[in-house]
What we know:
By secondary structure, this protein is an alpha+beta fold. It has helices at 2-24, 27-37, 68-73, 160-169, 172-185, 194-199, 201-214, 217-220, 244-264, 274-284, and strands at residues 39-40, 44-46, 49-55, 66-67, 77-80, 90-95, 101-103, 107-111, 116-118, 122-124, 131-137, 151-157, 226-231, 234-241, 288-292, 299-305, 308-315, 318-326. The strands form three sheets. Strands 1, 2, 3, 13, 14, 15, 16, 17 and 18 form a nine-stranded antiparallel β-sheet that branches. The longest helix has 23 residues, at 2-24.
Amino acid sequence: MRNRLILALLLLVCAALPAQAERKTSPHLTLETLLAGARVGPPEIHGNLAVFPVTVPKPSALADHLNLDAALNRQALKLTEVSESGSVNRVLVENTGKVPVFIMAGEILAGAKQDRVLQDDLWLPALSGPVEVACYCVERGRWSYTGDREFKSRPVAGNLAVRQSARTNNSQMAVWSAVAETQARVGFGDSTALGETFEAPAVRRRIEGYIQALGDLPKRHPQASGFVVAVGSRILAADLFGGRTDAVALWPKLLPSYALEAAQAESQKAGVDREAAARFLREAASMKTTTRATPGEGTLFSLEGRGRVGSALLLGRALVHAEVFPRSEESMPPQPLVPIQRQYDR
């Protein structure tokens, strides 16, 4: 009897071990560990903008891949409208190369019928075939080809107010409003295209000092693969990458987007300390996670809670990218996207 009882207990323990191992290595727990274990360094400051370099734990190495610009330069990536008539909230993406491609949500795709940003980070496998991907328009009004029928990459990412609005509201109208508000604050009225805002001489003069002062930040922090961004006394965002290569490659796009927020703020002095930046990430680690579908590979999470909202993409146990924003008190409640067959501003 005793031997049978011992055997039964052993069988129960052995049956539980795989489930425990699965829980310990689940993407959710890996993401929580990554956020909680991120190490925040001392800030680099210019005027009212403070950027805290972040060293992100690497429980698993990220697979070799190309970013958006590298893939386009190799002619290994096709970005087009989904059809001749197109659809505002969908684009067609195809990786024709033999290496996966990572496209960060917020990178501006210029051209075709109107400029877009992807709704979510995308990890596109090699030789993917054509894939429809959800996006937002960041150029209200135009709906016609003005040149190349394929999208190109602008050298900037969407500013934090636009990215935060997209993540918080899940609404095309809210994204357009955020673009319009940004352009109004910096006095740019020549175009509705968000990307062209950065190119305006008056705007460029306002952000150039930030870019010159902080342009080599990744070089000065060789272990950093992420950033916490604060303007004045407010933390505005965190961008964390699993691979330093992506952090370095995307920094020239991210810095102008951070600088544009600083240029709009009245505060003349940075007022966030290192502990506050570290606490921002620690609290992000306890946010509620919801798994979402992705047309690419990996596990895509929505993050929400503690007055914050964000998203993260993991490939196995390796982080690709995570973004976290404070939820604006003035932001609209989340709304579902309009069905893709409906068109805007034709």
